[in-house]
Automatic annotation (TrEMBL):
GO terms for biological process: fatty acid biosynthetic process. Gene3D superfamilies: 3.40.47.10. It holds the Pfam family ketoacyl-synt. This is 3-oxoacyl-ACP synthase. Keywords: Acyltransferase, Transferase. The lineage of its organism: Bacteria, Pseudomonadati, Pseudomonadota, Alphaproteobacteria, Hyphomicrobiales. GO terms for molecular function: 3-oxoacyl-[acyl-carrier-protein] synthase activity. Belongs to the thiolase-like superfamily. Beta-ketoacyl-ACP synthases family. It comes from Paramesorhizobium deserti.
Length: 426
């Protein structure tokens, strides 16, 4: 063990760059001011007609020109903006990053606009078949919409733009994806495969189709009026999450590499934990054991006890099922501390950014450590008496924070937890 290795003899992972885009705005400064001010980015949808939809609200990034371009172009733009801010802060070359890329991106398919572009006028009476669609794509001089149906398209574009090294990794672990991208980056540094990594979570997939699909799962809030009051994690009258868009990016380096080039250290990724839950496609195992295991694994990986966590950045989706399960997990692990450890949800303001959520919330967790400001859980006017959390209700709180646990619990039982700190665990 050296001054550059942790309690298990692995390279210490330092954060040297952070980038964020959400419904609250572009960049860390605007996001943090709005988030700690308790302002919501959730609003009525204007991108497409919503008259016949049960849910008519979302946390869309309408301030970007690309917001109406489709899920893949918008997700790419969000990833690029977050990466650019993170790399600029790190002081590394903007076009020759030199480390691997781990990108969490939404599952892709042909957008409706692109489908209408397909020349299917010669289709037989049997209807548009797969081969005919491919043939139409091949003869269409504009191949962009065809490229965007390829799962690795966004990561290839980001890799080309910023000069990352090696095969860019595109991953999808549902709502835990952003945290998984960070975990993969941490593991690459710990194994000695890279001195620096770029981890990004991005999602610009709010559309009529996606709203309908989540509505069919009874997962979305239908409390449309007023929009900014719909997301209410851990409240008794919560009725579902609010879809949102955004991206979070971290530049992470081995501590030795970062100090060698004189980089400013913004915090440390000290622990990662993951557990699978094979109980149901969307529901969590009733006893909460996979979520409990993910939290415990992250703490063990970090070499910390429950008493050493100062703040929990909760997954806090505002669905009846998830919030109940998350409370079960946290109350089991943290036991008698559960009512006293601050535990707030950023999703009350930015909505649920799906594949980007874990990365954005990791960025906010690091900003919490740097500033000593806890973002509130807004709309907490009707507390759930069965959930005894200190959710930092409605108003931010100032306190010294040295360690944060950030939890991400995804559909399909994909659970990832991260521990971040102001200092490494030696």
């Amino acid at each position: 063990m050296t001054k550059y290795t942790d309690h298990l003899g692995r390279p210490i992972v330092a954060v040297t760059g952070i980038g964020v885009v959400s419904s609250l705005g572009q960049g860390k400064e605007d996001n943090w001011a709005a988030l700690t001010g308790g302002r919501s980015g959730i609003h009525d949808i204007t991108r497409f007609p919503t008259e016949d939809l049960k849910t008519r609200i979302a946390g869309t990034v309408d301030f970007l020109e690309e917001s109406t371009a489709g899920a893949v172009p918008l997700s790419e733009k969000l990833a690029a903006l977050a990466a650019e801010e993170a790399i600029a802060q790190s002081g590394l070359p903007m076009d020759d990053f030199g480390g691997p890329l781990f990108l969490a991106a939404p599952p892709v398919e042909l957008d409706w606009k692109s489908r209408f572009e397909l020349d299917l006028t010669t289709v037989d009476e049997g209807g548009p078949g797969y081969e005919l669609m491919l043939a139409s794509c091949r003869k269409n001089p504009n191949q962009h919409f065809f490229n965007t149906t390829q799962f690795g398209y966004i990561s290839e574009r980001i890799a080309d733009r910023f000069g990352t090294r090696g095969l860019p990794i595109t991953l999808s672990t549902a709502c835990a994806s952003g945290a998984t991208a960070i975990q993969l980056g941490v593991e690459a540094i710990r194994r000695g495969e890279a001195d620096r990594v770029l981890s990004i979570g991005t999602d610009g997939s709010v559309s009529a189709e996606s709203l309908i699909r989540f509505s069919l799962l009874s997962a979305l809030s239908t409390q449309n009026d007023p929009a900014h009051k719909a997301a209410k994690p851990f409240s008794k009258d919560r009725d579902g999450f609010v879809m949102a868009e955004g991206a979070g990016a971290l530049v992470m380096e081995s501590l030795e590499s970062a100090l060698a080039r004189g980089a400013k250290i913004l915090g440390f990724l000290t622990g990662c934990g993951e557990k699978a839950d094979d109980f149901h496609r969307t529901r969590s195992k009733p006893d909460g054991s996979p979520a409990i295991g993910a939290v415990q694994a992250a703490l063990e990986d970090a070499g910390l006890t429950t008493g050493e966590i100062d703040y929990i950045n909760a997954h806090g989706t505002s669905t009846p099922e998830n919030d109940k399960m998350e409370y079960l997990a946290l109350s089991t692990v943290f036991a008698d501390r559960i009512g006293s450890i601050p535990t707030s949800s950023n999703k009350s303001m930015i909505g649920h950014t799906l594949t980007a959520a874990g990365a954005i919330e990791a960025a906010f967790s690091l900003l919490t450590i740097q500033t000593g400001t806890l973002p509130p859980t807004i709309n907490h006017d009707n507390p759930d008496p069965t959930i005894l959390l200190d959710v930092v209700p409605n108003v931010k709180r100032e306190m010294q924070v040295s360690t944060v646990l950030s939890s991400s619990f995804g559909f399909g039982g994909q659970n990832t937890c991260l521990v971040m700190g102001a200092e490494p665990v030696l």
